[in-house]
Amino acid sequence: MEILRVELGNRSYPILIGQGLLGERALFEQHLPARDLLVVSNTVVAPLYLGQLESSLRPRRVLTTILPDGESHKTLANVARVLDVLVANRFGRDCAVVALGGGVVGDMAGFAAATYQRGVAFVQVPTTLLAQVDSSVGGKTGVNHPGGKNLIGAFHQPVAVVADTRTLATLPPRELRAGLAEVIKYGLICDAGFFAWLEANIEALMAGDGTALAHVIRRSCEIKSAIVGRDEREQGDRALLNLGHTFGHAIESATRYTEWLHGEAVGAGLVMAARMSCESGLLASEELERVIRLVARTGLPTHVANVGPEAALEHMRIDKKVQAGRIRLVLLRGIGTAFVTADYAEAFLRRTLAAHLG
Amino acid sequence: MEILRVELGNRSYPILIGQGLLGERALFEQHLPARDLLVVSNTVVAPLYLGQLESSLRPRRVLTTILPDGESHKTLANVARVLDVLVANRFGRDCAVVALGGGVVGDMAGFAAATYQRGVAFVQVPTTLLAQVDSSVGGKTGVNHPGGKNLIGAFHQPVAVVADTRTLATLPPRELRAGLAEVIKYGLICDAGFFAWLEANIEALMAGDGTALAHVIRRSCEIKSAIVGRDEREQGDRALLNLGHTFGHAIESATRYTEWLHGEAVGAGLVMAARMSCESGLLASEELERVIRLVARTGLPTHVANVGPEAALEHMRIDKKVQAGRIRLVLLRGIGTAFVTADYAEAFLRRTLAAHLG
């Protein structure tokens, strides 16, 4: 088992990464002191892993709430269902919520934990690559609104993240690829060496090679926890983690969260961020080609036909990254060097959208 | 105008208290830098003060949402309405929410601000005595759940509190009395001199004497901001502010928030906390009598006939103050000296409930 720490003063917490952690009762006893626990999972993950997790959590009181699977179900109504269960069972402020599943489950369980009695403990047990490398770390919780992605939510840090890499064995290939989009993102924003390593090892990763996957999970969590430790509430550096996400959120919103996985939309978004950087004269065209090639080799979309450029622009305007009416974007000066800006020519943005959408 | 400060590091903010502040445009320009503003008010307060506030906020973009009046409307569904307006009008993360009204409006507007885009600025403009002395200060936001009071919410500090004492002129006497319950609470928890001053001046306060009201608003905000500055998230001292509230919340919940104002329930709750302290041998019976007398002179209930002791106990068990299954209570060692405990005889609690309920 490897242990990383997210350093946030009295809200610091460990990220535990290893094979078979779901079955380690001592680990949950150590990191989760609550006696009343609500495990939130979904209809796909629960049949696979809920039994094992429950027996690791007993003999404490363990209740479960199973939500429908998929980003289109990440709604305030489903969070209200979790809150209803907590109230109905008279859980006190000293209870804990455990998220067992991917990013959607983690975001909703975390938001319920953030708002129940103004905040109770929660533990992330991510079972997808995307959740293990990204969404389970950093305390962003929330739900979608018909008007836009993640528009309702809270910052609420978990007390621990338990990433059992064995759960990736049952992950559908499409979900694995979606997770790799976020991994590629880390290389692009701050680690050119890691990006090159991904170029050399992408086939092994897609084949589910355990050693290669363990490496990308650790390196991704290292990068993310360092950034979150510097800037918990996204006043500065943390915004770099949104590379590709403003484009990606627009794709998700425009297709009502039903057509593309978050990671797939991010994959296309990374290509668009690189294209826009190239159009703006910041990124060399060879580097743009490397980005497109790696995203394509990962089996992620580089072109999204079912969203038009105008529709995407509409959705980008309600994204959280809008400030003083300007859409803020993360762009690249090179592979491994990202920055945030609202100072760009609208024409480059339109040309970028036209090149990869519709 | 008087200015107090709530000291919370980079989340510190001023409390501005004075006559006619609603009309002072310069003050809102200074303390509220956002260009997009959503004013949340209710059907009673809006006709009286919304026009004046709006003209003080212009020429910025000012939208309004008018919610129904009353504690029974403090629901997640109404917060969702506020969020819908923010999304529909494409408000960015740099917008602000302004709460114009009493505690119910402040709690809901604050919770919407806490959760919109994971937190936007908000300003409290309290128009009731209860909101000016208590609920607008300290960052507790949230809504009720059918299962219990304030069970869903967040800590989210305002960027400023603007208390225009002139708004108290239109406050119904019943609302004025409800606010005085919280004022009496401050004397009981930490200021015996203030409690004695209230005994000497309660008639002037109930008659709406401006000087007397200004004094209690300032002193109440001083006490509350000092406690919140020491313990923002209620890990310790802040729990003292809940004196009478566990009893009061049970009365409110048991009557579905329709029979008693929050302050009225707190009035009865203060008497019950004092009774329980006396039963436990902590508080002299003369001091209990002083508490009962002052609450009664204020026109607040000392006995609540339409809630039975058993029903109240049921509702107390789901209150946020329950820890490890024990109901934590704030009790008195004397007027001006309160403490939190879960170590008391259940018989005293039952005797207390029987004496003042049913």
Question: What tags apply to this protein structure?
Answer:
alpha/beta; 358 residues; 46% helix; Dehydroquinate synthase-like, alpha domain; two-stranded antiparallel sheet; Rossmann fold; 13 helices; homodimer; 2 domains; 20% strand
Report what the structure shows:
- The structure is a homodimer of 358-residue chains.
- Chain A is an alpha/beta fold and 358 residues long.
- The first copy, chain A, folds into two domains: 2-170, Rossmann fold (3-Layer(aba) Sandwich), CATH 3.40.50.1970; 179-356, Dehydroquinate synthase-like - alpha domain (Dehydroquinate synthase-like, alpha domain).
- Helices cover 46% and strands 20% of the residues of chain A.
- The first copy, chain A, has 13 helices and 13 strands.
- Chain A has helices at residues 25-31, 46-57, 76-88, 103-115, 129-135, 173-190, 192-206, 210-230, 245-254, 262-279, 285-297, 309-316, 346-356, and strands at 2-6, 13-18, 36-42, 61-67, 96-101, 121-126, 140-145, 148-155, 160-164, 322-323, 326-327, 329-334, 337-341.
- A seven-stranded mixed sheet of chain A has the order 1-2-9-6-5-3-4, with helices on both faces. In chain A, strands 7-8 form a two-stranded antiparallel sheet. In chain A, strands 10-11 form a two-stranded antiparallel ribbon.
- In chain A, a hairpin with a 6-residue loop joins strand 1 (2-6) and strand 2 (13-18).
- The longest helix of chain A is centred in the middle third of the chain and has 21 residues, at 210-230.
- The N and C termini of chain A lie far apart (45 Å).
- The A-B interface holds A 35, 76, 80, 83-84, 87-88, 90, 92-94, 114-119, 140, 142, 145-148, 150-155, 233, 317-318, 320-325 and B 35, 76, 80, 83-84, 87-88, 90, 92-94, 114-119, 140, 142, 145-148, 150-155, 233, 317-318, 320-325.
